[in-house]
Design goal:
This protein has 460 residues and is an all-alpha fold. The chain contains 15 helices and no strands.
Length: 460
């Protein structure tokens, strides 16, 4: 019997190449291969879904903007900016930041307890803010430079409530990885609100209309969030259902959120909103309107991409922490990827913002383009810092972050005051404000990356 001839192998140990049989079907192209990889990668797939929905929503908002800016004008936009700044002074304490902790627990029962706690606190804070704005609306309007009728500030508690309650819904859907629902909600909200503002603006382009649209947009978003979350949020009626977790237990376990995260968010929001208040008081509501529009446009990449990455990244890094994985590689990859993606949009704004604003929004908004050019320097760093910021509660750095934010607020406010008081020029004030913001955010990113794998939050 003749022994079979052994198969010859290449000298370098590589397996022999096999010729593809001609079956009339061409091999898949690179695009198809990348699509298959994307479908098989849960994190990238989640980012793609959120980015797609958020991008569509922002493009819809941007499509309505040329009409809305021409209908309402810089002064009314300034009034809206002052109103939102006043809301922003209360909002970080509306649920004591417990809503942001919902993605962290290992069990859904504990997360549901945090949800209930967030809603109850939101109702209590709204009741208190209703009392304050109802009694002192004239004094508040005078203090913040609100030039519209002070009774419009009664809309502030409604806005606070819907935004505060929407936050735990948003984080619950992120926890359950229902990123498609979040995307659909963003698109629906942008379409309905933008269309309503434009349609009503042709009839009555006034400050009350614009402020009422802010509250109505929050109510619409809250209704859509509830519709998407109720099936998973309400536990089933099984006989073996685990008992609810006491609110006192989760309040204590996640006490670093009200103690450190909420004050930090308040200080951070104040540092972002204080330009509207100071420019309105020292330069005028028109300058505040320029800042509001430039802030909105420049923050689009953050809203579309960076925030979407953060929405998906926080559950991912929480899971990595549960499994005791190294966190620094995750942060470095996320930061480097955003640094590459952000070069194009922010580079365009730095180079062409005044011309673009004049072309898209009208000649009267050219000065807002100068604001946007400087804000782009700062927001590029904010853009790439989303993974580092999301990792802060996992690293147990919220107490340090609060002290850091106090220093940052003092530096930003001082820079803004120099531009407004000394130079009495809105562009100079925004430029100094942005440069200081850029430098401190660079330090925050480096600090978080350096702290990885040294300070892990225990018990998550």
């Amino acid at each position: 019997m003749i022994a079979p001839i052994p198969e010859r192998r290449p000298l370098l140990g590589r397996p022999p190449r096999r010729r593809l049989r001609s079956s009339g079907v061409s091999p898949p192209g690179r695009a198809a291969v990348w699509i298959d990889r994307l479908r098989g990668h849960a994190f990238l797939r989640g980012v793609a879904v959120v980015v797609g929905g958020t991008a569509a929503a922002q493009l819809i908002t941007l499509a309505f903007s040329p009409l809305i800016t021409r209908l309402y004008g810089p002064e009314i936009f300034g009034v809206q900016g002052i109103f939102l700044a006043a809301v922003g002074l209360v909002l970080p304490f509306a649920n004591l930041a417990y809503g942001a902790s919902i993605v962290l627990p290992a069990t859904d029962n504990e997360a549901r307890a945090l949800f209930r706690l967030s809603v109850l606190i939101s109702l209590a804070v709204t009741a208190l803010s209703t009392l304050v704005f109802g009694i002192f609306h004239r004094d508040i309007a005078e203090a913040i430079g609100f030039t519209a009728p002070s009774q419009l500030l009664w809309l502030a508690p409604v806005t606070i409530l819907v935004i505060a309650v929407a936050q735990p819904f948003h984080h619950w859907l992120a926890r359950k990885k229902q990123f498609g629902a979040l995307s659909r909600i963003s698109v629906a909200e942008a379409t309905i609100v933008g269309g309503a503002k434009t349609a009503v603006g042709f009839v009555a382009a006034t400050a009350p209309v614009l402020l009422a649209s802010v509250a109505l947009a929050g109510l619409l978003k809250l209704a859509l969030l509830w519709t998407s979350a109720r099936d998973t949020l309400v536990p089933g009626k099984r006989a073996d259902q685990d008992p609810p977790v006491p609110l006192r237990d989760v309040a204590y376990r996640y006490r670093d959120f009200p103690l450190f995260r909420a004050p930090h968010d308040w200080l951070n929001g104040l540092s972002h909103n204080i330009p509207s208040l100071m420019l309105a008081a020292l330069v005028g509501p028109v300058a505040a309107g320029f800042y509001v529009l430039s802030y909105r446009v420049v923050s689009l990449p953050i809203t579309v991409i960076s925030a979407a990455v953060g929405t998906v990244f926080l559950p991912r890094i929480a899971e990595a922490s549960h499994r005791s994985e190294r966190l620094r590689p995750l942060l470095l990859k996320g930061t480097a990827a955003l640094a590459a993606v952000g070069l194009l949009p922010f580079g365009i704004m730095i180079a062409f913002a005044p011309w673009l604003f004049s072309l898209v929004f009208g000649v009267e908004w050219t000065a807002a383009g100068d604001y946007a050019r400087w804000l782009s320097l700062w927001f590029y760093i904010v853009f790439i810092g989303s993974p580092a910021y999301q990792a802060i509660p996992i690293l147990g750095l919220q107490g340090h972050l609060l002290a850091y934010e106090i220093v940052v607020l003092a530096l930003r406010t001082s820079a803004l005051a120099v531009g407004a008081f000394v130079y009495q020029d809105g562009t100079v004030a925004v430029a100094l404000f942005a440069v200081v913001g850029m430098l401190v955010n660079i330090s925050q990113i480096g600090w978080c990356i350096f702290s990885c794998d040294r300070r892990l939050r225990s018990g998550i």
